[in-house]
Write a structure and sequence with these properties.
The protein has 233 residues and is α/β, with parallel strands linked by helices. It has helices at residues 19-30, 37-51, 58-67, 98-107, 111-125, 137-141, 155-168, 175-191, 213-226, and strands at residues 6-12, 33-36, 70-73, 83-86, 89-90, 130-134, 145-152, 204-207. It is globular and about 50 Å long. Bound molecules: 2'-deoxycytidine-5'-monophosphate.
Length: 233
């Protein structure tokens, strides 16, 4: 089946590769909306934890997914992270801990969770003009996206960058533990049977190991300008 072309940029890749910073900057340059799909998986993980729902309990998970209300708002000025509201309550940095990342990775392997969030993401992206960031946005959520990127970097570099980000926020960081978590999460995200982390066949892979954020954004922006969308130049 040939997917209908959509005016959408997708940026997939492993955790800590700088996707959020790059996606947000590119969205601003293009005047597109930034869609952080990882935040949605983190929100579901957080709700499971809050409500004491065992994600393996299909029935309770189904109820949770059909009743909770999630809103994504643009980041505060100077911040990278989108603001997430669950049932009207702002989640703040609680969603951004390494532990919540691990839990999000676990719940993201469940078919019910993926179906619900994929549907929501497609609703949000239906009108186009979106920069979607995640693991499967180019392969599963928006296969018809015109501009697809896969952003990679070595686990060591990603752990170092993530540690710097967390330290900037005043948090104590064990970099070795962070590296172990990144390697584990990569493996889980790549090896799960549904919507595993991988580059779409038509994605441009960029290794950001030796590149600054500005350089990565520039490469992506140039590509968006160079590849026409939907019959237009
Ligand atoms: O991008 P992130 O670190 O906020 O994502 C948290 C987890 O959510 C990630 O380890 C896997 C999952 N995820 C996913 O399965 N599919 C996506 N499109 C985005 C995130």
């Amino acid at each position: 089946m040939v997917a209908i072309k959509q005016r959408i940029v997708t940026i997939d890749g492993p955790s800590g590769g700088g996707k959020s910073t790059v996606s947000r900057a590119l969205a601003v340059k293009l005047r597109f909306t930034y869609l952080d799909t990882g935040a949605m998986y983190r929100a579901v993980a957080f709700q499971c934890r809050q409500q004491g729902v065992d994600p393996a309990d299909d029935h309770r998970l189904e109820t949770l997914l059909s009743t909770f209300r999630m809103e994504l708002l643009p980041p505060d000025p100077g911040e990278d992270d989108v603001r997430v509201l669950i049932d009207g309550q702002e989640m703040g940095s609680q969603l951004r801990t390494p532990e919540m990342g691990m839990l999000a990775s676990q719940v993201s392997a469940l078919p019910q969770v993926r179906q619900t969030l994929t549907r929501l993401q497609r609703e949000i992206g239906a009108g186009g003009r979106i920069v979607a960031e995640g693991r499967d946005t180019g392969t599963v959520v928006f296969p018809g996206a015109v501009w697809k990127f896969f952003l990679d970097a070595s686990p060591e570099v990603r752990a170092r960058r993530r540690a710097a980000q967390l330290r900037n926020k005043g948090e104590l960081v064990d970099e070795r533990q962070l590296l172990a978590q990144i390697i584990q999460r990569d493996r889980d995200d790549r090896e799960r049977p549904i919507a595993p982390l991988m580059a779409a066949l038509d994605a441009l892979t960029i290794d950001s190991t030796g590149l600054s954020v500005d350089e990565v954004v520039r490469q992506m922006y140039d590509r968006v300008l160079a590849v026409s969308c939907c019959g237009e130049k």
